[in-house]
Amino acid sequence: MKGTQHFSRMNYNVRRGLREIVAPDHRVSKQEWALALAEFDGTCAYCGATATAENRGIVPDHLVAVTDFGELVPGNIVPACQSCNDSRGNKPWREFLANRFPADAANRVARIERYIAVHNYSPRSPEASLSPEELVQYNDLVAEWASFLVKAQELQSKVAHRRSQAATVAS
To answer: Taking the model in full, what pTM does it have?
Structure first.
């Protein structure tokens, strides 16, 4: 249905914003990013490519997505060519490697896991990050958003159906 991409993007942005209550958006310093790049020899952690015009450069990629409470911190970011970053999307990184680069997946997974271990990274959970009162408020916001999104999608569907019927009658 035309227009659903807006709901998808809106849902992603709201969910990401809500997750940042739990895992505040931390910006990796230039020094931290340089160390992450050096850890992977300046190449994409997924495919091993260096920055080129074709892959649109090397960028920080979250191993644990912000929508899953991942932060932009050492141990949760790896260098990725923009092509791999785009292709991976929100897929789990191990699954992405296994499907996209099966011949080298085991080696790349091991290297990334060593990097995570060095930085001792694990995502925050709402329960560990929020007070009991804040957790109730957070869960209420998440539920309210889900309800709002359903109502908006139902209205969109209803309006689209009415317009479709009107166009059929007019022709």
So the answer is: 0.69
